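Quick one:
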Amino acid sequence: MAVGKSSVGLLLAERLSFQFFDTGVIYRTFTWKALDAGLSTSDSAALIQLARRTEFRFVPGSGSRLTVLIDGEDVSRQLSAQQVERSVALIAKIPEVRECMVAEQRRMAMDHRLVMAGRDIGTVVLPWADLKVFLTATVQERARRRHAELVQRGAGIPFETVLAELEQRDHNDITRAVSPLKAAADAIVIDTDGLSLGAVVDRIFALAQSRRQDC
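Output:
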């Protein structure tokens, strides 16, 4: 069973009676909106204008998951499209677009008791979070998990394509000037290679319970 950040976060939220949100969803949702509007990933000015005038709402979805409504529309089913996957890192690296998305994520965190998963949560979005956990795994393992998830959704994408796109995304995220991918200085790092989903959730749940007792 997959032990990626979304799988872990969702089960953890259920155990804590919180809600769960993977911030990659807001970037993929906005990317879908931009592509649907016919915008190029290189047209930064138009993308920034679209981000600033787009309305995001966060509503309960299945289980403990929050769903994004973009201008009142739920486009969850379209987010696994290959064009969205190929374009999201290019759009997400635009500083002004990220500023809009970060503001929305912070607004969401004020309105909900959340387990939030993303690549810059502890360093940029919520540096004041009660508990920061940084999950690591080899790119091959993460590609295997992502491929299995896409196959389950009915997307016929070869594993090699998923691996190549993930390697490129990692490079983009690590080297971008704004909100690069890295662990916060006070984050607890957990290597998930070889660990079951339950083992990872148990470890983080114990950390969360310990923080609650310390408060």
